[in-house]
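Thread title: Can someone regenerate the structure for this chain?

I was given the following input by a collaborator and told the matching structure tokens would be attached. They weren't. Posting the sequence so someone can regenerate them.
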Amino acid sequence: MRRRDRRVLVATAITGAALLGGCSVPDGPRGDATWHLARPADVSADSTSLEVGVERAACASGRTGTVLEPEVTYETDRIIVTTYVEPLTGGVQSCQGNDVVPLTVELGEPIGERKLVDGVCLVPDAVPASLCEDDGVRWAIRTPSASAVWGLPKG
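Best answer:
Regenerated them for you:
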């Protein structure tokens, strides 16, 4: 085998091993995370706190890690809750999904008729689109018109 062919073969093998073995994604000062309501049925317009499950968005060998203080932004029609986790350490990570870490989010006011939105879904390319269906809306008050649009039982 010629020397050049051998180099190409070695480079291809190294690239393949890296792709199959996991990925190394630098988080920066903090890692993006997505959240879901732990008990959606317990949330109402009067709620001033949320019980959520937080999951690191990046490959992390199954570990979400330490969840940082969430950022909560209040708007007229929505409350945006953005969760972050401590940055990754340790280099290459496998991508089998990460554990869910429980978190209580204290809101400064009742939800009212606003939607609850996962803030990481508002950042382009922060997480896979499959994690942000419905534009990251995690909860909206159930009204007859919303039930018809979302196909939810009226209640």
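The longest strand covers residues 49-56.
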